[in-house]
């Protein structure tokens, strides 16, 4: 009994296990959703290569695949599309709440608040009821784009426009955002962007989603916590910073000196590097192709030449360390050409990633154990409390 106890204690001893900052290389769950080969630069959702899905599938079909595990039959897809379409509208109460937000606030903060607010409208703690799970999936997939578009109009002092039932998912979002019906090429390219961003294994926001899910809270809290995590510049927020960086560099011939300075100052190059990939992110290559398709039809963005020059120079300097463009490097150029404002790039990422978060929510609930890692304590062991008048200043000197 005593020997067995010792083994358990050693097994759980954080010092024996060792510190892994950022949990690099530490498996914390099993998952059947997404498979990444970071050396070959391959990505698959439920076994399907990302390039095939981006070329052939639709965002809602891919969402169905991610969340329910298999591609839908034609009837299942029609039903799912119809149900999502029926739930696109958001309550006037949520729209009124957005009207109270400061117009200067970041749209990711608005989205996080709105996603969390859905939990006020739909009953909590029914997560073991399959109908509740299905309805929550439909509502979140349907309403997140409406919220993003509504905040864009509200902060300009306008009333949000209602979704249009005759438009498919992506076309409707662009319509609600820009107040113009998009041409078919733009709508299709946007839909392909959503497919590319829908899932990426245990990235920071998905890990957040799973940690939140593991407490058995409601799916709206799960998505809200993930939105908050995605917003940071080391994660989804990098797509916004890439465009700022390209505009600072201004001309292709400035990219070499920009990199020299950034590397000398140990500054991160936005849109480069990835914990999983040691080669160019396959999504970056596809997004670059989508940007080129848009430029061929609607004219080139001058920042594209800067991006290409930067990629070439950065590969020379950082390629040996396995640092290449990630998903955030070319996406902003696509979004900009579609007329999406820069501070909506990350909310657009969230519209898509909600599919992955919900797939992980379901998977987590299927074999749940609350996440509760340990730590290695480095603080003072024990101190004796003293009344204020007996304390020296500073107290810990
Ligand atoms: C996303 O995880 C996912 O899957 C995320 C994502 C998804 O789909 O969900 O793919 C989306 O978040 C893409 C990443 C967006 N972020 C950026 O583009 C910000 C810039 N990139 C990084 O800060 C960084 O590369 C991370 C955050 C993406 C990864 O961080 P790691 O794995 O913790 O790597 P690190 O910061 O510890 O760097 C390791 C080494 C360091 O050099 P050394 O000190 O060992 O010599 O690589 C260098 C770093 O300095 N390095 C970079 C760099 N990224 C890493 N050097 C210059 N520029 C960079 N961008």
Outline:
This protein has 18 helices and three strands. The protein has 397 residues and is mostly helical. It folds into two domains: 46-234 and 343-366, Citrate Synthase, domain 1, CATH 1.10.580.10; 238-335, Cytochrome p450-Terp, domain 2, CATH 1.10.230.10.
Structure write-up:
With 397 residues, the chain is mainly alpha-helical. It has two domains: 213 residues, Citrate Synthase, domain 1 (Orthogonal Bundle); 98 residues, Cytochrome p450-Terp, domain 2 (Orthogonal Bundle), CATH 1.10.230.10. It is 57% helix and 3% strand. Strands 1-2-3 form a three-stranded antiparallel beta sheet. A hairpin with a 4-residue loop joins strand 1 and strand 2. Helix 8 runs parallel beside helix 9 and helix 12 crosses helix 18. The longest helix is centred in the middle third of the chain and has 26 residues. The chain is globular and about 70 Å long. The model has no long low-confidence stretch (mean pLDDT 95). The structure holds s-citryldethia Coenzyme A (SDX). S-citryldethia Coenzyme A (SDX) binds next to helix 17.
In which order are the strands of the major sheet placed? 1-2-3
CATH topology of the largest domain: Citrate Synthase, domain 1
In terms of per-residue confidence, which ranges show pLDDT below 50 for 5 or more consecutive residues? none
Specify the structural class.
mainly alpha
Beta strands, count:
3
Write down the Rg: 23 Å
CATH architecture of the largest domain: Orthogonal Bundle
What is the CATH superfamily classification of the largest domain? Citrate Synthase, domain 1
First-residue to last-residue Cα separation:
46 Å
Helix content: 55-70%
Quaternary arrangement of the chains shown?
Answer: single chain
Mean pLDDT figure: 95
Q: Which hetero ligands occur in this complex?
A: s-citryldethia Coenzyme A
Q: Give the number of helices.
A: 18
Proportion of strand residues? under 5%
Shape: globular
Q: In sequence order, what are the helices and strands, one letter per element? A: HHEEEHHHHHHHHHHHHHHHH
Level-1 CATH class name of the largest domain: Mainly Alpha
Largest sheet: 3 strands, antiparallel
């Amino acid at each position: 009994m005593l020997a067995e106890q010792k083994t358990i204690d050693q097994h759980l001893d954080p010092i024996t296990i060792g510190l892994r900052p950022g949990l690099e290389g530490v498996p914390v769950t099993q998952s059947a959703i997404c498979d990444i080969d970071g050396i070959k630069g391959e990505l698959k959702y439920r076994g399907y290569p990302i390039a095939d899905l981006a070329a052939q599938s639709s965002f809602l079909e891919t969402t169905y695949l991610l969340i329910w595990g298999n591609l839908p039959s034609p009837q299942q897809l029609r039903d799912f599309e119809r149900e999502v379409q029926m739930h696109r509208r958001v309550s006037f109460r949520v729209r009124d709440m957005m009207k109270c937000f400061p117009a200067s606030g970041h749209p990711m903060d608005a989205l996080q608040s709105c996603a969390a607010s859905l939990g006020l409208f739909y009953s909590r703690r029914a997560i073991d009821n399959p109908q509740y799970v299905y309805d929550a999936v439909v509502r979140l997939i349907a309403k997140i784009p409406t919220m993003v578009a509504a905040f864009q109009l509200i902060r300009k002092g306008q009333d949000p426009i209602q979704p249009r039932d005759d438009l498919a998912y992506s076309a409707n979002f662009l319509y609600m955002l820009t107040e113009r019906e998009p041409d078919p090429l733009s709508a299709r390219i946007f839909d392909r962007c959503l497919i590319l961003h829908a899932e990426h294994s245990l990235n920071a926001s998905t890990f957040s989603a799973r940690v939140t899910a593991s407490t058995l809270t409601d799916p709206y809290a799960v998505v809200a916590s993930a939105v908050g995590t995605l917003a940071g510049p080391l994660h989804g927020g990098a797509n916004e910073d890439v465009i700022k960086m390209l505009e600072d560099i201004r001309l292709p011939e400035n990219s070499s000196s920009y990199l020299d300075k950034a590397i000398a100052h140990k500054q991160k190059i936005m849109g480069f590097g990835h914990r999983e990939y040691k080669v160019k992110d396959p999504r970056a290559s596809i997004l670059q192709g989508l940007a080129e398709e848009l430029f061929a039809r609607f004219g080139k963005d001058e920042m594209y030449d800067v991006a290409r020059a930067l990629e070439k120079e950065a590969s020379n300097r950082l390629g040996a360390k396995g640092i290449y463009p990630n998903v955030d490097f070319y996406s902003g150029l696509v979004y900009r050409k579609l007329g999406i404002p820069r501070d909506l790039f990350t909310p657009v990422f969230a519209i898509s990633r909600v599919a992955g978060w919900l797939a992980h929510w379901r998977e987590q609930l299927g074999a749940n154990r609350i996440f509760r890692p340990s730590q290695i304590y480095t603080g003072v062991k024990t101190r004796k409390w003293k009344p204020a008048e007996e304390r020296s200043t500073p107290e810990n000197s």
